[in-house]
Amino acid sequence: MRHPHHYKIAAALAISAGSWGIYWLPQRILEDGGLTGGWGTIAQMIIGVLILSPIAVWRKINGRTFGLELPITGLLCGGGFICYALSFLLTDVVRALILFYMTPIWTTIFEILFLKKRPGIERAITLSLALGGLWVVFSKQTIIPLPENAGDWLAFAGGALFAGGMIKLEIAKTDGVFPTIFSFFFYGTLFNIVAGYFLKDYLGPMPTMDSFVAMSSFLFFISVFYFIPTGIVIFWSPSKLGAGLCSILFLSEILVGVTSSSILTDEPFGWREIIGSSMIVLGGILAVVLAPNTKKS
């Protein structure tokens, strides 16, 4: 049966994922503050680990799971996010968005391969609407979103990794959501360090310590009130709604991203954005309403 709070969880996920549509704004603030070349992302991940570590230690002392037992989940979710964040440094924002947000396709494929699910007609309808809307929004820049450079491949791989993480979260049996969120930050940080090493020519030299100190309050604020709270909802939801439905609701980030960039920058907001956004919204609503009533509570 569906979770008794199916619609509430879906709404919370859409809002949390949608909030990531303005992720470009704090990234821009960090860059203006001197944390250039992706070092703001690295700092955010490390701060997440530092904030959550006391809770992890307390859970370990009390014999409870605390996240390090979930390396695959952490690497898939954290690594997928890091690829997404770093792709913005190496390709156009539009291409990074559309290639990463192939996640609904990846989750559907992974559900068939690993969970032996057979998506019904409702998945075909909602997936067509959501991805069709995505194509309408971005088709002016790219008719067929094929990877063309290193940044494109990072975004493409990031979407596949994150989708794999959603599948793991759907079937995982964990002691609450804390182990998942801590594994995301911990293993995502490790992934970030390794990726940063191989991409050091693009990331550039480490910013001065003064830049980190100057932005420390802002980094702490977005970690405590933005990064961690939305992450809890995002990583808790797949076990309640299923990875496929969650991946469609994640497209709310596109809506917020397109709208916020048009309001706060000179990005256009015309008929493509209106029609495409409407299709994505309709696809998300139908995905929630038509979701098979078989999910365990």
What does this structure look like?
This protein has one domain (6-289). It is built from 15 helices and no strands. The protein has helices spanning 6-19, 24-32, 39-61, 71-87, 93-100, 103-114, 121-138, 150-171, 178-198, 200-203, 209-236, 238-241, 243-249, 252-264, 271-289. α3 (39-61) crosses α11 (209-236), α6 packs antiparallel against α13 (243-249) and α8 packs across α13. The N and C termini lie close together (6 Å).
- The whole-angstrom Rg is 19 Å
Q: For the terminal residues, how far apart are their CA atoms?
A: 6 Å
Question: Could you say which overall geometry the principal axes of the C-alpha atoms support?
Answer: globular
**How many domain regions?**
1
Percentage of β-strand residues = under 5%
Overall pLDDT score:
84
Tally of DSSP β-strands? 0
Poorly predicted sequence stretches spanning 5 or more consecutive residues: none
The major pleated sheet works out as: none
Number of helices: 15
Estimated helix fraction: over 70%
Structural class by helix and strand composition: mainly alpha
Sequence of secondary-structure elements: HHHHHHHHHHHHHHH
